[in-house]
Write a structure and sequence with these properties.
With 319 residues, this protein is an alpha+beta fold. 17% of the residues lie in helices and 32% in strands. It contains six helices and 17 strands. The strands form four sheets. Strands 11, 12, 13, 14, 15, 16 and 17 form a seven-stranded mixed beta sheet that branches. The radius of gyration is 23 Å and the shape is elongated.
């Protein structure tokens, strides 16, 4: 069965947020910690999910090209590791023919494939792999490729043998291989450069979620793959208005407030957004009763939450 990699689905970061919701029991003896190094994630159809889930099929195939090679081939910052007898005298990127012998190294840590069909998840263990040539090409002088049955370049397909990981509880790690941390971000529309009309426009244009960046006060230990809740403050609609996951490491940038302070920003995917003119179900009053140890009316944006605080918030959110 061929399942094409779907970066437009949101890739590992979005799947990581889904997995964290269903895999809180990290001490389960059958728990699996997934990372970008040891797992591949695919968006699949219901028919593909059911076929692999029933055990009727034991193979998942993946075409290797410029959008997928980084997920499946061993590389150092995009530079592929070759395992061929003779090095090529031209640059083929991930399309080296090598006389029909697969010249690349499959990621050594790769152990799992995660399939996602809407809200269903299926974890598969990789039992082995083979490779075949999908299409041969000629490498032209300008660096482009054109189909050629006798060409010296090709697109490869990797075929993974798989089996179900029955009963496994799994979580998705952040970029440092750690269990994801959770941060409380704060947004005051009255003073922020991100105004209330910006929020209205974002959730109207992107009702399934939007992407932007935010300054994180306690940035030192924050990493890509960690999660956050956004707390709206300063008006009569105060409360948690959306949640999400960080999609980058912290990066220094100019002070959004114009006061010359050093700020660190992180890209983020935002989802489950509360309409701008509605009272959030998790209002400040509700939050103060549930977690009185947190100051919900003032504080910096980017407060690291404890595991206990995170567990309470997550349980409240899904109710």
């Amino acid at each position: 069965m061929k399942i094409l990699f779907s970066p437009e689905f949101g890739g590992h970061v979005y799947l990581g947020e889904l997995l964290c919701e269903i895999g809180r029991e990290s001490n389960c003896p059958h728990s699996v910690l997934l990372s970008e190094n040891n797992s591949l994630a695919f968006s699949v159809s219901a028919a593909q999910f059911d076929t692999l889930g029933s055990g009727a099929e034991h193979e998942v195939s993946m075409d290797v090209h410029e959008d997928t090679y980084d997920s499946v081939l061993e590389n150092i910052k995009g530079h592929l590791i070759l395992c061929c007898d003779e090095m090529p005298n031209r640059y083929y990127h991930c399309y080296f023919w090598n006389g029909g012998v697969f010249p690349y190294v499959i990621k050594r840590e790769l152990q799992y494939i995660l399939l996602v069909d809407n809200k269903r998840q299926l974890l598969l263990r990789i039992t082995g792999h083979t490779t075949t040539v999908k299409q041969r090409y000629a490498l032209l002088d300008d660096g482009s490729f054109e189909p050629d049955d006798n060409g010296d370049a090709c697109e490869w397909t990797v075929h993974f043998g798989v089996e179900k990981c029955a009963g496994a509880t799994f979580v998705y790690s952040n970029s440092h291989g750690e269990y994801p941390k959770t941060y409380l971000l704060r947004w005051n529309p009255g003073i922020s450069s991100f105004k209330l009309h910006d929020y209205r426009r974002a959730i109207t244009r992107y009702p399934d979620g939007f992407h932007f960046n935010w300054s994180v006060y306690e940035w030192e230990n924050a990493h890509k793959g960690d999660r956050f809740f956004m707390l709206r403050t300063g008006d009569d609609k105060a409360g948690i208005v959306f949640r999400g996951v960080f999609t980058s490491e912290p990066n220094p940038g100019d002070d959004w407030a114009g006061k010359g302070r050093q700020r660190y920003y992180m890209d983020m995917d935002c989802k489950d957004c509360v309409p701008a003119d509605e009272m959030p179900p998790l209002s400040v009053e509700v939050l103060e009763k549930a977690l009185p140890g947190i100051d919900w009316r003032r504080g910096h944006s980017g407060q690291l939450l404890s595991k206990e605080e995170t567990d309470v918030l997550e349980r409240m959110w899904v109710k």
